[in-house]
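All the exercises in this workshop are built on plain-text protein records. A record pairs a protein's sequence with a compact description of its fold. Read left to right, the backbone structure tokens trace the chain's path through space. Once this layout is familiar, the rest of the handout is easier to follow. Here is such a record, shown just as it appears in the course material:
>
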Amino acid sequence: MKKTSIGSEMKKQGESRCTQKTISLLSPLGTIQVSGCENGVHTIQILMDVAPAERSSEAPLSCAVTDSPAETSPEMQRCVEWLQAYFTEPQTAGSLPLPAFHHPTLQGDAFTSRVLQVLLRDVKFGETVSYKRLAEMAGNPRAVRAVGGAMRRNPVPLLIPCHRVISSSGQSGPYMSGRGDHLKQWLLTHERQRGEG
């Protein structure tokens, strides 16, 4: 993936309110809802409505749109294409452009925004980083707990890969406030297996 920053991927929030639209995809993790406007993606939600798909070298994984408004912005379409590539041809996802992000958490120079920007820019597909190391990379080595808070506030999981942040002991650590630990394991295994192929 090319070097970028959240600031360059996020368009300025206009004076008027956004008109958000939601696209639903059926992925190997279950339903994923992508919400956004013409300026960019606001949130990605993994609904955890089914158990993660079993992996098989014979059966390809899929990620299909199940519900979409008649018109979607180019940024929303870019997000859908990226998610589809991530699940079906993950080795190609890193070369695709990310959509613009349009969420207040990702604006400005707050520590949360900086941590998420560093994670997006520096931790590549198939890699992991500890909470401690990510705090160091973001310029505050003592802010390990704040890094955990930043992961919990990530509005666009998968795109900003908070599942790649693990504990210093090598344990995977919580995902989606502990409710999605099995999804984190699935994603890390998916990246390891697909990265080898």
User: Anything to note?
Assistant: Helices lie at 6-9, 74-88, 90-93, 111-122, 131-137, 144-152, 181-196. The CA atoms of residues 128 and 164 lie 5 Å apart.
